[in-house]
Amino acid sequence: MADIFGRADDNLGGVMTADQVSVTFGAAGNQNLAEAGMLMQSLTLGYSQQFSMIFELNSSKVFYVTGRPTGQASANRIVGVKAIQNQFYVQYGNVCKARDNTLLFSAAGTEFCDRGSESAAKETTRAATSLAYTTKFNVITALQVSVESQRMLVGEQLTLAFGSMNFTTP
Fold first, then answer.
1. Is 59 part of any domain?
2. H-helix or E-strand containing 86?
3. Is 107 exposed, middle or buried (CB count within 10 Å of its CB: 0-12, 13-18, 19+)?
4. Could you tell me if residue 37 is inside a domain?
5. Which domain holds residue 87?
6. β-pair partners for 128
């Protein structure tokens, strides 16, 4: 049967929850500086390497040359607990402490609470996917603060540089 706009009805393919995503900012002693109070809203990680294609005259040869990789992270958060905020700035704002500054972004398999028409038994099961990204030697390179007039929330946009990035499937 067609819907109000003359389109075919959707078929629900399944329902998943996204409760198993976490961001951990660690430092010496395995501190978690992104615990309650950091109020993290979003995180973007970027990792790239310099890349050049060198062509040889009088030949069809091409040579690939790569440089060293670098990374950048952008985080948006609501400004919250002062003690955690100060500790975070002291640790991640000081380039001399970069050796101890790691960031772990992990997402455990999401929960399927309805597998759709493919499964007669609508049991909750764990998906097979899990992933984790670890960045090392993080340092704050930029900080912006904003406020919204409607909600009067003070927001913070952080930019961090990092030296290496690893991917694992736990």
1. no
2. helix 82-92
3. middle
4. yes
5. 15-52+70-168
6. none
DSSP code for 144? E
User: Hey, which residues does 64 pair with through a beta bridge?
Assistant: 53
- CATH number, position 90: 2.30.110
Task: Write the pLDDT tens digit of every residue in 33-66.
Answer: 555 456 778 889 999 999 999 999 999 999 999 9
Taking the model in full, what pTM does it have?
0.70
Question: Would 120 be classed as within a structural domain?
Answer: yes
Digit-coded pLDDT (tens) for 109-152: 566 666 666 554 444 444 445 778 889 999 999 999 998 888 88
Amino acid at 62: V
CA distances 2 to 6, 7, 116, 136, 170, Å, are 5, 5, 21, 53, 44
